[in-house]
Design brief:
There is one protein chain. This protein is mainly alpha-helical. It has one domain. It contains eight helices and no strands. Helix 4 crosses helix 6 and helix 5 packs across helix 6. About 5% of the residues are buried.
């Protein structure tokens, strides 16, 4: 979405950005539900969601000042980074935000590749045993 210069490009980019999220979240949730004992799932899932969702407000608090004070001025005509990244995201109003989208997308892709490269992360489904309920003795 950061390299797009038109509404049509942004719509297609947003569609593909959101298309895979339900599949990823569903797969992730299935692994957690299989591995965590039911009696502690509420606490574990609440903690997991807290950690995941705290990044949203933190990102919003940092993105605005970062773009306004650093990226937008650097991506204006004659700016420090316009010659370097202008071919990718354009130059002028909005180019700094586009550059932020590109940078965060690259970081996300690198994190995914790193996770895939680490066998303990890639093979978590087979390495970590599923929760198996313990049979209660007959009274």
């Amino acid at each position: 979405m950061g390299i797009g210069q038109s509404l049509a490009f942004w719509v297609v980019g947003a569609f593909f950005s959101m298309f895979f999220i339900p599949v990823l979240n569903g797969s992730n949730q299935a692994i957690w539900q299989a591995k965590v004992a039911p009696d502690v799932q509420g606490r574990v899932f609440a903690t997991r969601r807290l950690i995941a969702q705290i990044t949203g407000p933190l990102a919003m608090l940092t993105a605005g000042p970062l773009v306004d004070r650093l990226l937008e001025p650097a991506m204006q005509a004659g700016g420090d980074w316009a010659a370097i990244f202008g071919w990718l995201v354009g130059v002028g109003p909005g180019a700094g935000m586009g550059l932020l989208f590109v940078i965060t997308s690259v970081i996300g892709a690198l994190a995914a590749l790193l996770g895939y490269k680490v066998p303990a992360v890639r093979n978590i489904e087979t390495l970590l045993p599923d929760y198996v309920p313990v049979a209660k003795p007959a009274a």
